[in-house]
Amino acid sequence: MIRTPLRPLARILRAREKGENPDVIEAENLAQRHAVIQDAARGRAQGRLTIMAMAFVVAFGAVGVRMGTLAAAQPTEPSAMASSAAIISQRADITDRHGRVLATNLLTHSLYAHPRQMVDPEGAAKKLAAIFPDLSLERLQKDFSGKRSFVWIKKKISPEQMQAVHDIGEPGLLFGPREMRLYPNGRIASHILGGSTFGKEDVASAEVIGVAGVEKAFDRWLRDPGNDGAPLTLSLDLSAQAAMEEVLANGMKVMNAKGATGILMEVKTGEIVAMASLPDFDPNDRPRPLLKGDPSDSPLFNRAVQGQYELGSTFKIFPVAQAIDLKLVSPTTMINANAPMKIGKYLINEFRGHNYGTLSVTDIIVKSSNVGTVRVAQLLGPERQKDLLEKLGFFEPTPIEMSEGPTGKPLVPKRWPAVTSATVAFGHGLAASPLHLATAYATVANGGKRVTPTLIHDRTRREGEQVLSPSAAHTAVQLLRQVVIRGSGRSANVEGYEVAGKTGTADKPRPTGGYYGNKVVSTFASTFPASDPQYVLVLSLDEPSAIGAGGESRTAGATSAPVAAEVIRRVAPLLGLRPQVEKPLPMIERPLDDELKLVSN
Amino acid sequence: MRSVLYLLTTLAVMGMAFWAYRENYATQAALQEMTHVQREIGTLREDLGVLRAEWSYLNRPDRLRELVNLNFEKLKLVPFTSDQFVEVGQVAFPRPAAPVVSATGTDAMPIERPAGFPPMRPQERMP
Q1: What residue spans carry the region label Disordered (chain B) (predicted)?
Q2: ipTM more than 0.85?
Q3: A89 and chain B: CB distance < 8 Å anywhere?
Q4: What counts of helices (H) and strands (E) characterise chain B?
C-alpha cells in the first residue's frame, strides 16, 4: 500500500505560491487517513458483533427450545433415575377376566452356604436339619466338611425359617433374594395355568420360567419388560371356574367316574369361561410327570385339551345340520332307520338292539338313531362330510394358547371308505378332544360362523367364516333343544335356561384293539339358552356308572347330563345370565260400567 | 456513572451465580429425594404385591366355601340361583325415612339396615 504523505511538497509549494494555508492540506490528508482506519475498525467490530450475536442467538435459542419442549412434553422424572422403580417383578401377573389374581410373584429368600467361611459346620448342619426336616443331616455334614466352597441348601424359604436360620448365627449361611411364583387359588384352573420353575439360578436372582399351560405359552410375553407390568388377562371367570370344578368333583364322586372334564365357552367370542379337568394338581407344588404307564392317568393330563376320545352320538348333529343346510332333508323328512343296517361286511346297530323303523329327522336326533344318522350321512357323501368336519376344526389341533394345545391332535382315519364315513357320522372312529367338540358346537350355536377357542380376554379377532347357513344352524339348535325336552337329555333340563344339547356314550377302545364292554366315555354337549345361544358347555365323564332305580347305567343321559344340568344351574346365574321366564299374562281391564264389550276379529 | 454500572453488573453476576449455586444444590437434593421416594415406591409396590397375593389367597374359593359352611348357622348363605333374579318392577320402593327424632339417646347412629334384616343380595346393588 502506498502511504500518501501528509504534506505533499508539490501541493504545498503550489499553495504557498497562491498564498493559501498549507496546513489545510495536511488536515485534509489526515482526515482521509483517519477515515480509512475507521472503516477498517468498523468492519472488524461488525464481524465481532455478528459472531457475538450468533453466539447469543444460539445460546438463547437452545434455552428457548429446551423450555418449549419442557413445557410441551409430558412431565416425567429425569430418565437417569427412573430405572430403579420400573423393574419391580420380572414376571407379570395372570388374572381372570375380572382382574382377580390367578398367579402372582412373592419375594422370598433362598439359602446357600459357604462352608469354608463356617465357624461350626457340625453344629450348623444339626441346627439346619432341625429347622428343615426334609434335609438329611448326613448329607449336610458331608457337604459342609468337604472341599466344596459353595452349597445350595434351599431354593425357597419362608420368613419364619429365615429368622430361624438367622438365629443360628453362622456366618457361612447366606441368603439370596428369590422371586417365587404363587398360585393363590391352589388347585383351581391348575391345568390352564400349568406351573413354573426356576431357570438359570444365581445368588442374587433366579429366572422364573413357565413349564406348562398358559405360563409356558406366554413365557416370552410374561417376561417382557416392555409390557410395563401389565397383567395377562385370561378369559376365565374365577367364580364360574370354582363352581364348575366343585360340581364336577361331586359329579365324579356320585357317578364313580375315573376322570371328568368340563368346558364352558362363550359362543360369540370363543372365550373359555371355565375349563376343568379332574383329577387335578396344585400348581404351587407341581407333581412330576409319570415316566411309565399311561400318561392320561397322571393328574397333569389335561383331558379337555389333550384327551382323544371318540365322542359318540354328540357328533350326530353335524351330518344332520349339513344335510339341512344343503336342503337334502328338512326336520320333518321321514328316513328309513330299520336296524340293523349292513354296510359291506359291517352291521350298524342301534343302542341296546332297538329298531326304530321309519323316523323323522328330528326324531333321529331325539332318539339318537345310529342307522338314521348313517342314512343322512350317505345322502351327503364322504367328501362333503369330511369337508364340514375339517371346517369345524376336527382335523387339526385346537389353536388354544396353551403349551399342551398342539399335542391334542385328533385321531382322524386316513382313508375314508363307506364304513368309516358311517361310523364317523355317529362319532366313532374319529377321536378328538372335548375342546374340539365345544368349538364345533359353538360354531353351530353361533349361527354357523366359525368360532376359534381362546383363553385371552377381549382380544380383537377376525369374524369367522360361515360354515353353515344361519337358518340351518338355528334349526340344528332347535333339534338339540328337542333332545333335552323329550329325548335322551331330559335330565339336563334346567328351568329357565332352555338347554339344548346332545348326549353321547362311546365305548372306550382297548389299547390292544377292540372296545371294552363295560367302560365308556359319556359326554354331554350343550348350548344355552336355545333361543339366543350364549354359552356352550361340554361335559365328559370317564368310565362313569350311575346306580339308579333301574340298576347300573352308563349312558350319558344318566351320568353326564345330570352333572351338566347342575353345572348350568350353578354357573349360569354367576355369569349374570337371566332365566327366561314365561311370557307375562296379558292384562285384562276391568269391564266397563255400561256392560259394553269391545270385540275385534 | 460508568463505574456505578460496572458495580451493578458485577453485583448482578454475583447474585446470579449465588442463585445458580443454590439452585444446583436444590436440584441435587430433589433428585436425591426422588431416588428415595422411588425406592420407597418400589418397596410399597412390593408390599402391595404381597398384600394382593394375600388377599387373593384369603379369598380363594375353597376357603370361602369352607367359611360359608362353618358359619351356615349365622349367615345361611346358599349358592346363587336363578330364582334370585327379579324384575325391577318387583323390587319394593324403600320406605320413606322416618322423621329424625332429635333424640338424646345413644343409639342415634345411622345404620344401613336394621338388625336381623337379611344381608344385601347381589342384585340389590345393581342400579
Answers
A1: 108-127
A2: no
A3: yes
A4: 4, 0
Cell of A477: 339348535
Partners of B65 on chain A (C-beta within 8 Å) are 242, 246
- Judged by average pLDDT, the poorest of A44-48, A547-551, B59-63 is A547-551
**Contact between chains at A88 and B50 (C-beta distance less than 8 A):** no
The domain defined by A239-284+298-574 folds into Beta-lactamase (3.40.710)
Search chain A and give the residue with CA nearest B83.
A579
Nearest CB to A579; choose among B39, B57, B82: B82
Interface test with B, best of A63, A76, A81 (most B CBs within 10 A): A81
Q: Please give the model's pTM, rounded to 2 decimal places.
A: 0.77
The residue of B39, B41, B60 whose CB has the most chain A CBs within 10 angstroms, and thus the best one to mutate to test that interface, is B60
Higher pLDDT among residues A513 and B33, named by residue:
B33
| Nearest-angstrom CA–CA distance, A570 and A247 | 8
* A496: contact with B, CB 8 A cutoff: yes
H or E element: which one contains A467? Answer: none
Smallest CA–CA distance, residue B109 to chain A, in Å, is 35
pLDDT at site A107 = 84
A239-284+298-574 matches A91-233 in CATH topology:
no
Angle value at C-alpha A123, between A118 and A129, nearest 5 degrees: 110
- Domain extent listing, chain A: 9-60, 91-233, 239-284+298-574
Sign of the C-alpha dihedral, residues A226, A230, A231, A234? negative
Length of chain A, in residues: 601
Does the structural domain A91-233 have CATH classification 1.20.1050.10?
A: no
Q: pLDDT tens digit string along A174-227?
A: 998 888 889 999 899 999 998 888 888 888 778 888 888 899 999 888 888 777
The helix (run of H) or strand (run of E) holding residue A435 is helix A434-445
- Domain assignments of chain B as residue spans, ordered by start: 1-75
